[in-house]
């Protein structure tokens, strides 16, 4: 496995001058406009993913296996040489269309274990688990929730969201969160959708 991260991916995508007028904002009395994809604009992740579709499709036609999420790509291969070929073709193609590979965030040498999108993937053991920095955070938030006699619905929802986001790495996770989720939903109904009320 290897990973390719695009440097300033959104800023590599220019906005047509006719459409820049829709991306204006005022800051400290000065009018600004975006000339490229801005961060935090709702449609940008979907548009950027669609923009990369032909690139990923071409790489698949070459026989390469890759999974992309916005500006992160996880590259795979049957063996070291296969993965190295995938890395070479992917980086060449991204470079040829004007993207810049982030050297610090990319892992261009094939490995059997790597962390991507908050999960550690081990191809020898065939396991996926939360990254090292996620586990203490999950434990701390769960401990805090258990020790709180009357947490807010928002606190419970936050912990539930974190737990659900880790389901790909927790085989039995879906079996153990439902009671708490149902309690949260019931408390939300009783409090007319107010997340700041206590349970």
TrEMBL record:
Q: Which PROSITE patterns match?
A: RT_POL
Would you tell me the protein name for this molecule? Uncharacterized protein
Q: Which organism is it from?
A: Paramuricea clavata
InterPro entries per the record? DNA/RNA_pol_sf, Hepadnavirus_pol/RT, Rev_trsase/Diguanyl_cyclase, RT_dom
Coiled-coil positions are: none
List, alphabetically, the PANTHER family matched.
Answer: REVERSE TRANSCRIPTASE DOMAIN-CONTAINING PROTEIN, RIBONUCLEASE H
């Amino acid at each position: 496995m290897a990973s390719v991260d695009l440097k300033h991916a959104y800023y590599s995508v220019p906005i047509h001058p006719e459409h820049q007028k829709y991306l204006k904002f005022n800051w400290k009395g000065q009018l600004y406009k975006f000339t490229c994809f801005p961060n935090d604009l709702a449609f940008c992740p979907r548009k950027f993913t669609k923009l990369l579709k032909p690139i990923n499709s071409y790489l698949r036609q070459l026989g390469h296996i890759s999974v992309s999420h916005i500006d992160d790509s996880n590259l795979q291969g049957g063996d070291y040489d296969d993965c190295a070929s995938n890395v070479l073709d992917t980086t060449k193609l991204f470079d040829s269309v004007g993207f810049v590979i982030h050297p610090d965030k990319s892992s261009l040498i094939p490995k059997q274990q790597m962390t991507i999108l908050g999960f550690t993937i081990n191809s020898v053991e065939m396991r996926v688990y939360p990254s090292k920095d996620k586990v203490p955070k999950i434990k701390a938030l769960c401990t805090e929730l258990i020790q709180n006699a009357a947490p807010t619905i928002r606190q419970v929802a936050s912990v539930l969201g974190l737990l659900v986001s880790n389901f790909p790495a927790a085989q039995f996770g879906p079996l153990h969160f439902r009671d708490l989720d149902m309690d949260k939903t019931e408390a939300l109904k009783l409090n007319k959708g107010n997340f700041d009320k206590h349970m």
